[in-house]
Diaminopimelate decarboxylase (Virgibacillus salinus), 435 residues
Amino acid sequence: MILDNHPFELNSKGHLEIGGVDSINLANKYGTPLYVYDVSIIRENCRSFVDTFKDLGVSAQVAYASKAFSSTAMLQVVKQEGLSLDVVSQGELYTAIQADFPPSKIHMHGNNKSVEELSMAIEYGIGCIVVDNFFEIDLISKLLKKYNKTIDVLIRVTPGIESKTHQYIMTGNEDSKFGFNLHNGQADKAFLQLYNNENIHFKGLHCHIGSQIFEADGFKMATTMLFKKIGEWNKLHDYTPEVLNLGGGFGIRYTKEDTPLPYSSVVKELVAKVKEHASMFDMTIPEIWIEPGRAIAGNAGLTLYTVGSKKDIPGVRSYVSVDGGMTDNLRPALYQAKYEGVLANKAAQPVTDLVSVAGKCCESGDMLIWDLPVPEIGSNDILAVFSTGAYGYSMASHYNRFPNAAVVFVENGQDKLVVRRESFHDVVKNDLSYE
Ligand code: LLP
């Protein structure tokens, strides 16, 4: 049963329930398409990382990668759970400020940070900038002089490990737009520039090896590579990092094929590896930082759609179309990502049909799910697609001038609108007349 793969239940009416609320009531109250988050699952995900570090007694920061899903309410929940925050743009930083996120717990990423972005980060006194390239070192140095301020930085390095569909490959000469290459001298050159800069407090190293990773091996390989370099810098410059940031990428279950290890197990293994290397190099254990995005928001969210038209092609397939699609979930079209779903109003009924779920956009590639087993399906049924909490709303578009869908949070049987549905006025509000 599909529900076995997802943290939701059926109620006595046979409807899908989320956070103690009937999903059909939510669809009726707020309309569809609708992103719905069970806040207790967001909190549980946050705690599974934070508590594991606490139990292990190591200093750590768990920074939510807000690109996965950024909204004022989401960042408020993450703040309540004591996490730090990873932002990659002025828009994400602005949202964090709106949510009253403590600036000292915000880290800024980006491979092309602008003067405006860096200025805002420095003015707010954010906790850390993750420096990505030489151009940026120059910009930060100039801005810090102008503001007469100092800032903590990490250096982002590319260790030459990539996670490809849950396996790791060594890519020798890393071909990436992000970070300093660890092996060709660039990281060493950047290290010296940062280490010797009087306005910069060089806190440590960062790497991010990929996304939707199911085990600890890749993080452990990255740790080994980073420590190799740290060992060199320690010998040459007596440098000991205060922080080691191993990035995000912790995988979630989209379909039954996905089998991520519990986050606590992955964290335990990577902490053990860091400790092992620190002791090998006779160094104090650095603070360990990680940046989970998908693992915090992904499985806590689902999307409700209303079924509209149906097209049967005898001997080929049945298409059913819903009132959203690639504008609210780009991942199937962009990455051929797979999802599971149920008819929320018929979730207890036996499966009899196989349908392919199409979006509304004027584009053949706008398909949400191929070959979904469902009970007898008709227009006005409500389809719930699971695990849409990460990179759904955050990657939404206005293609075909669809207004962006609303977001509702549910917790303890209460629902609350946290992002309004866009109106057609919102869609045209920046248009200017040419007559
Ligand atoms: N830290 C850094 C430096 C990153 O680049 C990313 C994701 C994360 C953390 C968070 O990764 P997560 O824990 O969410 O896997 N749009 C794609 C995912 C792009 C991820 C980019 N960087 C998707 O929908 O699968």
